[in-house]
Amino acid sequence: MTKMHDVFLTQKERIPVAVFDSSKEVNAAVASEIAKLIRERAAAGKKAVLGLATGSTPTGVYAELVRMHQDEGLSFANVVTFNLDEYYPMQPHELQSYRRFMNEHLFDHVDIDPANVHIPDGTVDIERVYDHCADYERAIDEAGGVDIQLLGIGRTGHIGFNEPGSPKTSVTRLITLDRTTRLDAAGDFFGEENVPRRAITMGVATILKARRLVMMAFGEGKAKVVAQAVEGPMVESVSASFLQDHPNAQVMLDSAASAALTRSMTPWVLGPVPWDKQRIKQAVIWLARKVDKPILKLTEEDYNENFLQDLLAEHGPAYDINIRIFREMQNTITGWPGGKPDARKRPGDISRPNDHIFPKRVICFSPHPDDDVISMGGTLIRLADQGHDVHIAYQVSGNLAVFDEDAIRFADFARDFNRMFGIDDSKTADIEQHIEAVLKGKQPGQVDSPQVQQLKGLIRRGEAKAGAKAAGVPEDHCHFLDLPFYETGTVRKAELSDADTQIIVKLLREVKPHQIYAAGDLSDPHGTHRVCLAAIMRAIDEVKAEDWFKGCEVWLYRGAWQEWEPEKIEMAVPLSPSELMRKRNAIFKHESQKDKAMFPGSDKREFWQRAEDRNRGTAQVYDKLGLAEYEAIEGFVQWDGESMFT
Ligand code: F6R
Fold first, then answer.
1. Which residue lies with its CA nearest to atom 1 of ligand 1?
2. pLDDT value for 288
3. Which residues of 547-577 are buried (b: 16+ CB within 10 A; e: fewer)?
4. Span 410-428, mean pLDDT?
5. Which residue owns the Cα nearest ligand 1 atom 10?
6. Domain check: are 526 and 549 in the same one?
7. Closest Cα partner for 455 from 500, 395, 416, 414?
8. What mean pLDDT do residues 19-33 have?
9. CB-based contact 290:308 (threshold 8 Å)
10. Does 83 lie in the same domain as 54?
11. pLDDT, tens digit, for every residue of 112-144?
12. Is 158 in the pocket of ligand 1 (CB under 6 A)?
């Protein structure tokens, strides 16, 4: 794309935005800007003052800075830091404390002078908070002000903890956290009820005083609020929008977080764009939905009156474009996700390269024990019903998401069961006692002992087997991988290692699948799904040259949270009303996640409701575009073999 092109693409953006292919590139760019500042200041015998953020977004920058310290001798001896915020009340050693977070991610690994580190103190008495905040402001001024302030953006649009309603003039203070923010933090605290209600945060005015602001955001989940902050009006309800008023602010995004910006969603409204196959499809679907017509009824006027004159001029007439996109969409629909065996084909059936192989060996990788049935339960049912050899590989144990009360219930059951049938429990008595003692005396947020973690993992394993069975997949086809990266007992996970990859490689070589299904939440930067997908991609990289892998299809489904955009869906598997009920029944087997899940996100619906709404929603989109009307549809995108994690 030409420079000219970029200029008009950014017309609606009120803060400079840079979009990168991956979060890794953003991290490298931000870390090198910080390193440059530190080095320049050191050379001049001066200090560099950094404003730092916590949360999942900046961890990659910190990792890169640590690497630069270790490999390139980047010294932090001249660095002074001020963090944005801290929960209140909060002890510094606690798992969720931002002081501990900063120590673990950065300070413990570099040569910074602890006296130069400033983080709001979550332990000060309530009567002293006001003075503490005033002292914090003064300390920033005395240090000469912040040179570069790193920012993330919360789903409420907050920077720091400046929740909706924070004025532009606000300074460091005690605030009450918004419900959405507390829900987002619920995972870190093992339940929303344990999340502190308050926090101390730098104010909007404090943040705007910094000489340079760098706001990063990654993943689909941030796309909407990023667009509001960047393209919307400057309002107190989205405190990140105040960056529009800063002379030296920069927003750094991965492509997923940029998805709701006009330049990504509807670039043609900004000016002429090059029309490739994918963009034409995107535009036609957008147009049909905008004017509320099926694709085949779109007219020349519809194109002309809705910013698509050049598309029409280059590729028209309207009917030709319509029919092409209609056919493309129609070809995505198949009730035979494993391919239709040649013997059963009728004229007009869609052909896929491996149709002649029947039955197919299929592996569905499920990051958590319930993602398989939530995200592609209907497709699993179809694959199993159609006679394919379906395996499910559960990647992590999911033990973290089991409530203590359920663990106690199962421990009680095991004890009563043993007693009822006179089973010698001398070997297990210690474990029972341990579990009871630990769970009953547990503090909120305390990490479970290994035994309790195992018990919780076992509960989810039982549910997974029952769910798989309900979808028609037998127990001996369920593989529990318990990938080591997950088993830390805390929300913070270990780095993906070769041990994780090798477990998957082994399974792939054993099953030699013709089809692989995996959760394709591509850009959630630190979420388990993304790590699980990275592990699969690495494993595939290792086996891809082997004979059996040739022609193996890899299909990506979306996790419990989001659906593929209609223009991206390459395989749409329709579900009948009764298949949808069977899918619901399979999801119901995950009792520990029913009614109330440990990590519900901000969505109040249960997982089965979200899945049904989503699948029905996709079917409605297809229907409204003029394709067949189904009860529900599960959508998939085929992996093109490029690594998404370079
Ligand atoms: C963190 C902070 C917050 C986060 C924001 C995004 O110190 O002040 O504003 O930056 O909540 O959090 P993550 O990065 O976890 O999505």
1. 54
2. 98
3. eebeebbbbbbbbbbebbbbbbbebbbbbee
4. 86
5. 152
6. yes
7. 414
8. 95
9. no
10. yes
11. 999 999 999 999 999 999 999 999 999 999 999
12. yes
If asked whether residues 199 and 128 sit together in one domain, one would say yes
Which pLDDT value is given to residue 20?
95
With respect to residue 344, please indicate whether it lies within any of the assigned structural domains.
no
Probe ligand 1: pick from 62, 83, 84, 175, max atoms within 8 Å of CB? 84
pLDDT band at 446 (very low <50, low <70, confident <90, very high): confident
- Checking if the pLDDT of 3 tops 60, the result is no
371-101-151 Cα angle (round to 5) = 85
- Specify whether the CB–CB gap between 472 and 324 falls below 8 A: no
Burial class (CB in 10 A: 0-12, 13-18, 19+), 2: exposed
Q: How far is it, in rounded angstroms, from Cα 443 to Cα 441? A: 7
Is residue 536 included in any domain, yes or no?
yes
Predicted pLDDT at 155: 87
The pTM of the full predicted model, rounded to 2 decimals, is 0.87
Q: Which two tokens stand for residue 222?
A: 């941030």
CB-based contact 252:216 (threshold 8 Å): yes
pLDDT score recorded for residue 601: 61
CB–CB of 253/18 below 8 Å? yes
Residue 150 three-state SS: strand
Number of domains in the chain: 3
Dihedrals phi, psi of 313, to nearest 5 degrees: -65, -40
Q: What is the mean pLDDT of residues 89-115?
A: 95
Instruction: Give how far Cα 645 sits from Cα of 254, 500, 531, 536, Å.
Output: 12, 16, 10, 11
Cβ atoms of 621 and 333 closer than 8 Å: no
Domain interval for residue 170: 33-263
Query: Given this model, what pLDDT does residue 491 score?
Result: 64
Mean pLDDT of 219-227: 91
Residues 6+ apart with CB under 8 A from 336: 382, 386
pLDDT at residue 605 in the model: 83
Phi, psi of 49 (to 5 degrees): -105, 115
CB of residue 84 inside a 6 A radius of ligand 1:
yes
Q: Whose CA is closest to 156, among 84, 59, 229, 101?
A: 229
The CATH number covering residue 632 comes to: 3.40.50.10320
Tokens 């670039």 -> residue = 267
Same domain, 280 and 244: no
Predicted confidence at residue 390, as pLDDT, reads 98
The one-letter amino acid at 408 = I
Give the whole-angstrom CA distance, residue 419 versus residue 435. Answer: 17
Residues 248 and 305 in one domain: no
163 has catalytic annotation: yes
Interatomic CA distance for residues 597 and 609, integer angstroms: 13
Q: Output the residue whose Cα is nearest ligand 1's atom 11.
A: 154
Task: State how beta strands 249-254 and 17-20 pair.
Answer: parallel
Mutational test site, ligand 1, from 54, 204, 215, max ligand atoms within 8 Å of CB: 54
Q: Residue 561 above 70 pLDDT?
A: no
In the set 86, 163, 463, 634, the catalytic residue is 163
